[in-house]
Design goal:
Strand content: 15-25%
Number of helices: 15
CATH topology of the largest domain: Aminopeptidase
Radius of gyration: 24 Å
Helix content: 25-40%
Oligomer: single chain
Number of domains: 2
Mean pLDDT: 94
Number of strands: 19
CATH superfamily of the largest domain: Zn peptidases
Distance between the termini: 30 Å
Low-confidence stretches: none
CATH class of the largest domain: Alpha Beta
């Protein structure tokens, strides 16, 4: 699919489908009034018949005949928050789905009325939405007809002119649209990594993907550590989690360096448990069936680096993921075991299904010792407790540094990804104290997302750090807006936003 920007007048478009966003009553929109006039009032008559009100998710298709060059017109409801980044992204995705449903080959999407200040953001988010709306994981379908992507060309039109009044223009609009395409494609790549069955998305396959990025971008280098190398470093928590699998665990370290001297060093750590059975604290089948998604943090950081290298960043960027499988066998780690971490902390195992924090604890220690970051982040499908607190669409954000937390939340808002700041109450740390070791790896039921964050905080020391628990938004059971069923690629957009603009 090709996505491009055109400044030509919307009413002269000869696209198969001309899609127009509508926020509120169509009769209040000057552009739609002009369009209805060109159609001799037929458009608004259909609007009244179908009770189309411009609500988010609504759509109306009109066939103009010979009155206009385009084959069909689609009014896409944008809702009231038409300038919100997430809503704009959903708008692009809904326009694409409408075009696919109508089997259109060429889609022209008219941008919502924008100010000069918001024009570039609007273009970027629409482009992201078009790419994400086209996503399908159809690799294992024998009959791929149902999932084919018929739209070959998508054009974004900024000319929403009425009479002599012209829409604002921007020299950066084309670049903004290209940026949206890059971020959208990186998000789709993360979705592919998450949706791929664990049989194939193994630690070694993640390493191969990382090696591929190093070949693609001259600015990226990669280092892959096997179990013997990790053992020499003392990464016993990480290695214990993967001990029950016949597949070798891998510590993957990607480095991006800018052409000029770096302003900052940013390190992004992603949880890379490619399948989580729960270990001897075995999950029931219903809870285990989707556990290929437990490497969503890994997929986000790896895929985001591809976009960062394409767009460019003034910062030195490190991406680290400790990849393994948490399985049950005669060699798997056991309840009651005491593990010694890379930084020397001893940890009693009270729940083998609280494994992500073990892999991250060693990965965070490695990140600080090897990269000396100014800013450190980790991303993980860490706790069901965070989903209980925030639901399925919102990630929990924990931080030990107020300035970095504010900067990260600003990046989240700019990227249109829903995150919420959560507390790190030190009083709850008593829950993860062990009578026989320095820590235990799980606490009480209450405050589970916080105690998981406090466990990681122990290994962070003094580095400015943000922990993102994306257990809820990492995957979806339904399609809607820019989201598809399965892995969502959540956090890619915010990582890219922060690394390239933060």
């Amino acid at each position: 699919m090709k996505i491009s920007y055109l400044s030509s007048a919307a009413l002269k478009s000869n696209a198969d489908l001309l899609a127009i966003s509508v926020s509120g009553a169509p009769s209040d929109d000057a552009f739609l009034k002009e369009l209805d006039k060109a159609l001799d009032g037929r458009l608004f008559a259909q609007v009244a018949t179908e009770s189309f009100e411009g609500k988010a998710g609504q759509s109306l298709v009109h066939y103009p005949g010979e009155a206009l060059p385009c084959a069909a017109i689609a009014l896409i409801g944008a809702g009231k928050k038409k300038s919100d980044p997430a809503s704009l992204r959903d708008l692009g995705a809904n326009a694409y789905r409408c075009a696919r449903r109508l089997k259109s080959k060429r889609l022209a999407l008219v941008m919502p009325a924008s100010t000069a200040k918001t024009l570039d953001l609007t273009g970027q988010m629409l482009a992201e939405g078009l790419v994400l709306g086209s996503y399908r994981f159809s690799k294992y379908l024998s009959d791929k007809k149902a999932s084919e992507q018929p739209v070959e060309v998508c054009e974004i039109l900024s000319d929403r002119s009425v009479g002599k009044k012209k829409a604002p223009t921007s020299r950066g609009l084309k670049a903004a649209i290209e940026r949206g395409v890059v971020i959208g494609e990186a998000t789709c790549h993360a979705r592919d990594m998450v949706n791929e069955p664990a049989e194939f998305m193994s630690p070694e396959e993640v390493a191969n993907i990382a090696r591929g990025l190093a070949k693609k971008h001259k600015s990226i280098t990669v280092k892959v550590l096997g179990e013997k190398e990790c053992e020499k470093l003392g990464m016993n928590m990480f290695l214990a989690v993967g001990r029950g699998s016949a597949r070798e665990s891998k510590l993957i370290h990607l480095t991006y360096k800018p052409a000029k001297k770096a302003k900052k060093v940013m390190t992004f750590v992603g949880k890379g448990v490619t399948f989580d059975s729960g270990g001897y604290s075995l999950k029931p089948s219903a809870a285990m069936v989707d556990m290929k998604i437990d490497m969503s943090g890994c997929a986000a950081v790896v895929s985001a680096l591809d976009a960062i290298a394409t767009i460019g960043s003034p910062h030195e960027i490190h991406v680290i993921t400790a990849c393994c499988e948490n399985l049950v066998s005669g060699t798997a780690f056991l309840l009651g075991d005491v593990l010694k971490s890379m930084d020397g902390t001893t940890v009693e195992i009270t729940n083998t299904d609280a494994e992500g924090r073990l892999t991250l604890g060693d990965a965070l220690t490695y990140a600080q010792q090897k990269t000396k970051p100014d800013e450190l982040f980790d991303f993980a499908t860490l706790t069901g407790a965070c989903m209980v607190a925030l639901g399925s669409y919102t990630a929990g954000v924990f931080a030990n540094n107020e300035a970095l937390a504010k900067a990260w939340m600003k990046s989240s808002d700019g990227a249109g990804e829903d995150m919420w700041r959560m507390p790190l109450h030190k009083r709850l740390k008593s829950q993860i104290k062990s009578p026989i070791a320095d820590l235990k790896n799980s606490g009480d039921r209450w405050g589970g997302a916080i105690t998981a964050g406090l466990f990681l905080d122990h290994f962070v020391k003094e580095t400015a750090w943000v922990h993102v628990d994306l257990a809820g938004p990492a995957s979806s059971t339904r399609e809607g807006g820019a989201t598809q069923r399965g892995g969502t690629g959540f956090a890619v957009a915010t990582i890219v936003e922060h690394a390239t603009r933060g």
